[in-house]
Amino acid sequence: MARDPIEPPGTGVKFPDPARVRGRDIVAVGADYRPGTILQAYRLGIFPWPQDEDLVGWFSPDPRAILPLDTLHWSRSLRRTLRHHPFRITVDEAFRRTMQACGGQREGGTWITPGMLDGYEELHRLGWAHSLEVWERRTLERSESSGSNVDEEELVGGIYGIAIGAAFAGESMFHRRTDASKIAFATLAERLRDGGYELFDVQVMNPHLASLGCVEIRRAEYLRRLAQAIAKPPRRAVFA
User: Which residues contact 77 (CB under 8 A, 6 or more apart)?
Assistant: First the structure.
């Protein structure tokens, strides 16, 4: 049974109000991945973007990228893929592995540092951070000892982020098979829409997100929508 998320202890960290910051996307710098610090940042519309373990920028970009949940529309090819793909979809079954795989997508080293991984995993344990996973089943050749084929599943795609009230902030996604990240993203978006979420924050625009229907809005508008969404009760059914 799904439960309400557990509030972590406060940390005393104070972030600037992004609404008062002009002309820059980085609003703070400092390496602190305690759950209370991370959660406070997201409630203010801020997220961490580490360069290494000790150098962490806290961002509130202007403009901000979101996926409008009330006007979801997939391409014909993606709709076909969503209907006929061979994968198994799960929620919160492999959060840490999904986050690690997302970090491995970046050339030249991961931006998901050990401290960040531990902080988000604790938020997952408390009920704030969630993942959606895409699995591929493979049949291994018959072994001499058992005399039978062995099936196993490989994690081939996924997405993770933070849920607060009726807002979900997508952090990152990955794929190891063609279309696996698109399937993860679109499946999550449809579940968020059907579960009563009002805001799907994807943070920073790129061509891949644009192709999926994401748009940019001004930071002031994003902060207004965020305040309304996080004031709502948790939408537990999506991640049950």
Answer: none
Q: Are strands 167-175 and 199-203 parallel, antiparallel or unpaired?
A: parallel
CB atoms within 10 A of CB 30: 13
**How far apart, in Å, are the Cα atoms of 200 and each of 46, 69, 71, 161, 229?**
14, 7, 12, 10, 10
Please identify every stretch of the chain with a pLDDT value under 50, giving residue numbers as ranges: 1, 108-109
The whole-angstrom separation of Cα 239 and Cα 176 is: 23
Q: Which amino acid is at 8?
A: P
Beta bridge partners of 153: 137
Give 185-214 as a DSSP string.
HHHHHHHHHHTT--EEEEES--HHHHHTT-
Place of tokens 């920073």: 204
pTM across the whole model: 0.92
**Residue 59: strand pairing partners:** 26, 47
* Residue percentage of the chain with pLDDT more than 90: 80
CATH 3.40.50.1820 fits 62-139+150-239, yes or no: no
Q: Which two tokens stand for residue 48?
A: 């961490």
Chain centroid offset of residue 174 CA: 11
The Cα–Cα gap between 240 and 145 comes to 39
Torsion from C-alpha of 172, 121, 132, 167, nearest 10 degrees: -70
Q: What is the pLDDT of residue 139?
A: 72
Segment 117-150, tens digit of pLDDT: 999 999 999 999 999 999 999 876 665 565 666 6
CA-to-CA distance for 169 and 187, rounded, in angstroms? 15
Write the pLDDT tens digit of every residue in 12-44.
Answer: 999 999 999 999 999 999 989 999 999 999 999
